[in-house]
């Protein structure tokens, strides 16, 4: 028994740690170096030249190590029970590629970085270049397998700071620990799951769940103590051939011990004496004779003729269409100063002569013969007997038996062989060579150079090809064949046979038997528990080897370095706590302390990232090395699985990015950005393109500074340049002026400024009626939009509209009004209440200026009508009435409007406080239009610009381009909101009228799109403080219907409206839902997110799609969720995560704007 126990102890080497093992001199480092990526300031590779010895052989070469560290793994992995299984699959992939894995876990607390988890590869080769190449390929495999297993996980090269700490720690940390044994991934599971059982007390045999935390225990313990450490796992690939050899040997050894686990002891005695004799005699004789004769004759003749005709004809038509577009921007600046002087003289003489003659003769003769004769005689006999007895109650019996047998035989054999061989050879070779060479070289060069070059290039290329092909093919074939054949066959056979056989045999036999029996026996079954225990251990090893033979395994070295003795002792305790277990392990995890010599040995191997080669001298063990353990993929995963530990460089508390659609082949010649893959968590090169049929009203929404303008600028540039759109940008500030330097837009960009004193101030008479908008409608539009811009109430709107009506009537602008067309006015004095009659001066064409204006309008519409001064305006057609209204409205100004409002205020009863307050609010806003430079810029005059024509740039037959209207910071928000909202309405309704004219074939107008920067302020107005009328904060006023109509019907008239807004919930009702296309940037307001989610096709309520709602609040800068909802294919309606392409160009100064566009007279 003691012998068996000693065998078990010897079988498990870790049970005798006091044995002293020799330390081999197996590693010598001759040179080493580090390579950094200077462009990104990160670690590229570690290399060293070393001589390694193992198994009596020496290996000299280069080892290259490349490392990546974990920077992000989604929060979802923390709750994933398949964490270890995913690492197991990744390790299978690495094993299939033959990778040697390196895993580092570093605790860095000075500087305060925390836990750093690194994954890398180690490659060895005799050539440094080949080792670098192989390590680069291996690292790509490692990166791809980890990315495939852990969705959206991010690995990046080590920073210089972390790399420096690792290298210094390998050199300076004095305390080294070696960990051996099999980790158990099924223990230390986290949570209150009642299915977890005590493997010692539980009776069930089911395995436990996989762990949710293992290395986290180690990280947390060392972080609490702030003890710096470096844990290194070196996993070296073991071939399947070696694993299967080990498995076969293990199975053979296990069977030996398994056969000794139990048996039966039995004692018996018996005697038997049988005898048998048989005999017989027989004779036989036979004779046979036969003759056979046969003769046969056959003849044959055949003739064959064949004719084949075939005809073929093919007709092929092909058409191919190719379109291509490319954009490249390059900028180069080079300074070079160089001086070189070279002088050289070289002379070489050489002579060589060689002569050789070789002759070879050879012959051989070989003979062999052999003969063998064999003869065998055999005989055998046997006698057996037994006796026994039994007594029933005690299990005792008595029996006796006797028996015997005999046999004999003989055989003879003869073998003969002969062989002979002859060989002759002859060879003669002659060689002769003579060589002479002479060379002489003189060189001298002196070079001085200095250069400076700056180059900027930008190219836009559009290519197209149309290919048509037609092919006609005709073929004709004629073939003829003729064959003749003649055959004759004769056969004759004859045979004679004689046979004779004589046989004789003799047999005889006799049998005699005496079989008395008596037996006595007593048996019992025995078991050897030490052998049972030993067999269980060996079968566990065999099971692990069987798993390894199917998926592979790694020889694994686990080293741990600590800066202090307290840290080393903590590691000795924490490593078993984190990784020790009892399921499917032969030897539990053991952290071994080392003596000084062993520490130096392990430290050297750790610095070289090279495994130990100390060989285990005890036979029949699973591992052949002292410091290494053969681990299956799942066991290695327990060491190397990503630790969900937040105190470090890896971000582990952020959930993964939700899933978004990915369309790699979107058609279109307008490119808006690159698509982002939610599978890899990276930006791709797949372009986000759009075609005109999917273009629609677009909303760019999100918090300030996250990229709304970037996406809008790209859309404005591409659609304007590619599709020749007429684009208007209502810029609340002045961030869009860079459009002047956009590529491909020369001659198609204009910039105008709302604020007084601008280089290109917008000279605009606000009260001048646009060319294609009825005067009465325009009067109402001005009143409503100016009231909306200041969030005025109905009373204030009424004052403005009343004042405008009186101004337009008194100036004869309302040319379609019967009051203006009547020849006599009946006026009532407001004081005396008396009615007076007076002639209406506006009922007729007053002067030559009005006559010329009317005839000019007619001429523009292809009409040759004429009119006389003094003719009644009631006889004019609508075109003439509109021309007259535009002409007469030039004399009106905001100064007159403000004066009339002051008159209203003065005429109000003193006790009408509410009207006084309302008028004060109106005047507070409008007075700034009647003061200083603004009164001149937006007042009466013949030099005012017809704003409905802005944006029509370039050739008259193909007008297109982009016009930026800058609000600037020099104006208050109210006048900017009022002017921009009025301008957008004029442009929209003018475009509607232009489309109607285009249907008559009068003129073609380009598609128009308007970009509303700060759309919240333009559409809903700005706060006017305490001067607002009651109810002025109500956004449901009538003006909202104007913008709703624009967004609802704009597409029908070739007008697309794009808004840029920060607060979605403040947009007028129905505006966002009219935007089929959407770009969503980070937005944190809960109300905004509730409005955006339904637009994306996600639920804003309940427990579903909550990940999208949370993601809206953390979308990274410059990333956006894009949805193009205008399509008849439901598969194209899913939202896409993308990054808009920034239009890279300089923002022009006022001087550059003046240089390129000229200037307007200062106002």
From TrEMBL:
Name the domain of life. Bacteria
UniProt-annotated stretches for the region Disordered:
181-200, 342-381, 413-502
**Which Gene3D superfamilies does UniProt cross-reference here?**
P-loop containing nucleotide triphosphate hydrolases
Chain intervals with Polar residues compositional bias: 342-377, 413-498
Annotated NCBIfam families:
ser_rich_anae_1
The protein depicted here goes by the name Predicted ATPase
Q: Which organism is it from?
A: Longilinea arvoryzae
